[in-house]
Amino acid sequence: MRIPDPVFRRLRGYSFDPSLSTQLDTALVNEAVFKIDWEGSLKPGPIGEYLEVVDYDPASKCFYEPLDLNDKHILAQDGLSPSEGNPQFHQQMTYAVAMTTIKNFEKALGRKALWSPHRMPAGPGASGNIEGPDNYVQRLRIYPHALRQANAYYSPAKKALLFGYFPAVSNAPGEFLPNGLVFTCLSHDIIAHETTHALLDGMHRRFIEASHRDTLAFHEAFADIVALFQHFSFPEVLKHQIAKTRGRLESQNLLGELAQQFGKAIGQYGALRDAIGEFDEKKGEFGEKRKEWRPKNPNPDEYQTIEEPHKRGALLVAAVFDTFLAIYKRRVADLLRISTGGTGVLPEGELHPDLVNRLANEAAKCSKHILNMCIRALDYCPPVDISFGDYLRAIVTADIDLVPNDEMGYRIALIDAFKRRGIYPRDIRTLSPESLSWERFERDDTEQLEVFKKIAEILRKFVHRLDYLDGDPLILGDFDSFGKHFKNLEAGSWKSKTDRERIFLLTEAGKSALSELLADYKTLGDPEDVMQFEAITGLHLLYSLETHEPVNGLEFIESGGPQGFSGKYVFEVHSLRGARRVGPDGNTLNQVVISITQHRIIPYDKTLKWDLLTEEQKKEEPSFKFRGGCTLILDLQDLSLRYAIVKNIADKVLFDKNLFIENERLTRQRNYRTGVDGTAMRATYLGTSDNVNNEEPFALLHRNF
Amino acid sequence: MANNISVRVRMYRQGLGDCFLLTFMKKGKKKFNMMIDCGLFLGTQFSSEIMKAVADDVKTETNSRLNVVALTHEHYDHISGFKLAKDIFQDPAFVFDEVWVAWTENQGDPKFKEVRERFEKKKRGLRAALNGMSELNPLRQTINSLVNEFFGEGEEDAVAVAGLTVADGIPLPMTNADTWKYVLEKSVAQPPRYCSPAQSFGLAGVDEVKIYILGPPEDFELLDDEESPEDETYRKNLRMAITDSFLAAATEVDNADFDTNTYLPFDDKYPFAYDLVKADESANFFRDTYGFDQDDPNSWRRIDDEWLGMAGELALNIDGITNNTCLAIAIELVDSKKVLIFPGDAQFGNWISWQKLKWETIDASGNKVEINVNDLLKRTVFYKVGHHGSHNATLKKSGLEKMESPELVAMIPTNQAFAKTKNKDKGGWRMPEKELMDTLELKAQGRVILADEAGVAGNEKNDLHERCKKLKLSGAETQNFLRAVTFGGSFVRNPTVSSLPEPLWVEYTIEG
Known about the structure:
The structure holds two protein chains of two kinds.
Chain A: E1 8-14, H1 24-30, E2 31-37, E3 51-53, E4 56-57, E5 62-64, H2 72-76, H3 87-109, E6 118-119, E7 134-135, E8 140-147, E9 152-155, E10 160-167, E11 181-183, H4 188-203, H5 215-230, H6 235-244, E12 257-258, H7 260-265, E13 273-274, E14 277-283, E15 289-295, H8 301-305, H9 309-339, H10 353-376, H11 388-402, H12 410-420, H13 433-436, H14 443-447, H15 450-467, H16 499-524, H17 527-537, E16 556-558, E17 567-569, E18 572-582, E19 588-603, H18 615-620, E20 623-635, E21 640-647, E22 652-654, E23 659-661, H19 664-673, H20 681-685, H21 697-701
Parallel strand pairs in A: 3-8, 8-10
Antiparallel strand pairs in A: 1-2, 4-5, 6-7, 9-10, 10-11, 12-13, 14-15, 16-17, 18-19, 19-20, 20-21, 22-23
Chain B: E1 6-12, E2 19-26, E3 29-38, H1 47-61, E4 65-66, E5 68-70, H2 76-84, H3 86-89, E6 95-96, E7 99-102, H4 113-132, H5 138-151, H6 155-161, H7 176-186, E8 193-195, E9 200-203, E10 206-215, H8 220-223, H9 233-250, E11 271-273, H10 274-279, H11 285-289, H12 310-324, E12 328-333, E13 338-342, H13 348-353, E14 358-362, E15 368-372, H14 373-378, E16 380-384, E17 409-412, H15 416-420, H16 434-443, E18 448-450, H17 462-470, H18 475-484, E19 485-488, E20 505-510
Parallel strand pairs in B: 3-5, 4-6, 5-7, 7-8, 13-16, 16-17, 17-18
Antiparallel strand pairs in B: 1-2, 1-20, 2-3, 9-10, 10-12, 12-13, 14-15, 19-20
Helix pairs in contact in B: 2-7, 4-9, 4-12, 5-12
């Protein structure tokens, strides 16, 4: 008899980090068993489908032996037991938490997660796609002992998570061993946070560019949100904390806090970050200094004044967590009434275990809903230059799409939480879910535009293949408009590829097909038509002196074209993905998301225009890339455009008034990049120069001392 | 009043770097002079020619006798002039009566011994860490040039980069430390004066001028403070421990400064030494995943140098410490109570320490009174802007905001065209930083003099005029201000770009 594969692999680890195992109160719940989807082909490392743990410690100039999770002794005891002194347990811990995070993310998104591709240097004559080809990256690499610093970060350049370790300095007696080390790779929160950075980068490659003071903060906030809500997936921890707070999750508790040990080790009073409260210095009875926890009150000024990405991100995290608390309270109100004879006022003493269980259930369910809302919204974000306001609109729109009937008031609670923190999208008059939702297109709006029909044709093929991943595109023999876009695919190799790689190859082919279509369209299409397309997408495709002012700095290929076009502006089909989701009412959404981007080269010096510089000056003049573009969401049911989420690339030119108005976003971005808002000496000297630190945007960011 | 002592502040226009010559005058006669710093940023073209022109001018103006040479700190852009124009300075007929430096320079002072040793250790560690980095690491280049620019090391490289050779009159390499020593030894008549905060004294033979020493602080904690006022001792200890653990690994095994083994994370039974694994030719996990060959397809994912990234942090820390050990002084014209502030490149920790200082003095009616730095700031009519106008070298709240005199004038020794070439991808160094510049303009109602502005030939004060106009300074006051400003001297900045001469200095006279 063939025994089927196990569903899960059980692995022990810390629910938080080692520090909570030394406290009597939390020791029991701090050891959790992670249930990871079974990977049959898991190799020592561990190396699986998504991850590869390679334990090199360059500062100590040594390697640590890879852990074989399939060793029968290890299998029989749910993995190695938690231990700070055994590097192999560290490997297990990073694998377990990162896999948990990936799987939670996939469930919410409804599709497989891909890492951001490894981009090769640009080759000559690449049309449409500006930079070089993208190579598939199957696994995110994890280096558990990469740095001797109080730091851990995701490296987009290496597609790797680098965790640091550092000596702990004793603050309060007994807190840390003298000369003891703190390992960031043993913190659930830090691992989940860094893994989320990688997942987000896999979807939105441009979000690592600090083009707006919200962009890096958004990355941080999103990573924190995922790490925080993952706390609610540990039933023991959840019940423990609900019992402890007597169901009042708005009071101080571990669920709302991140990175306990790290926070204390770097000299903070409590956790590194806390979504609900903060410590306040108080004078004690005898004049001694004391820190006291108090809930954080939303302050709308903070969104205007706080710049540091983690702190700024914390505003977004607090808004989301606040939404969770509001919904949780509403969901448990009836339970509390039932258990208190209708008063809703709990008596003194411990809660009944049954009530704790029910409250925990509600908290878990509700946290899952909120987290799903947050993750789904990623499909509704602009491809570049995201702000918190954009994200709010994305969450609201995604939620309206999937859950038209908002009975529990999730959206209202969310908007209210953002509003109280002064986070508004620009150009919005009223704050209702309807006005916050991205503008919705109906079939009639774009029907007359032939190009959307053609786009839809390609997309239909794309989605069809996405449904039948087994079908080898080369053997299928469909060398039609779509099949030929599979580049460098060796005959017969399809079979040996995993589903994720197939999805990647399909996506690349789809992008290539769309790119070709749009390149033809802007050259051959009716100018009126193309201009209408531009108005919808915010892109700039035409180059014609009669109708358009040249867009300065926008890459332009000079070649004669028919119908009065003298050339082409370059664009990139940036991403393409299918999204199929089922709502709570059984309604299904079947959509495809495309994003198209362009960039302009902008000199920092306001008085200069890129196109007017000589080649020599172009080499010398400090400049940056200003990006724009759009995310298009198409409905596959009726093959029409639903949403166009736009970041305009061009400036405004009013011909009749002879008026030129610089792109407002561009002005803001230049100011931000030149740090008119005042940045540290570090920025003066080391900066975040495009060729050095853009590769490692998180390296300095995460250095927390 | 004509009988009161007045002072002419001459700012040289050599480029990014400080060189100020102060001449105290009474009844039209020169009574005393003082040079504060003499340097030019590493990598400036024709630096030797330029600094020779500056030195010549100083020599002529002072009749070959500098009463005081005050050195604020050991950075290249503040002292390299002594080396670049060594021919002129070393002339025995050119006399330095006295040299002033910060108390931290006193090798015999036990207070600073520990800090100095730690600082030197860090510097050595940083060097070692940089040497350990791959040549290709862009971070190494950035940090390397940073370190070189500050400490004047690797000058030959910079000279080579600028396309010059020793034959072009570039003197042989001489580090900042050498230069420093050379200047100290030049004042043969007197040992150097080591200045400590809260000291005050008059100038030799000129009672009408009083010097107040503001910094560097004697509180070491503050020396390490670049930014945050909330840094606690704990964080410092942590930073020290982390730095040590980092440096222990970055430096060689037999390094006397650090014990490599102290910070190893695991028991001996776990690690496999990198060299042994690499030497093992057989297939193994690490060869397959990490790989050791240059052309390994996975080589782009290696992390050999990533951990050394902390060197950048360390370089900034060292730089910050040096800036905080700046000699910062206030000069008072006793009769008129006017004050001039020269903070060097002091950063946060230095500035904030001034708040605690107190001096005893005699007021108009002959009573003893105690004054503090706020009294001095309130009467400040001249401010030499710190660190070429970068953002964290001028304390806003307890510094600039307190300078309330309606006569305030600020000078910024900067060269924006040169600063712009630094860290180019981020839009260049902002010297001055815009926000600070705005505040300065507002405080001084436009009377801000930049070393790189000289209007147009024949109308050198054009820029100054425009700035006053922009800030709506009254016509009469503008005229008074412009009358007190003089452009003079002449030099050619870069003959390969333009052979047109420009003024060598700009001068502002403060009447007593």
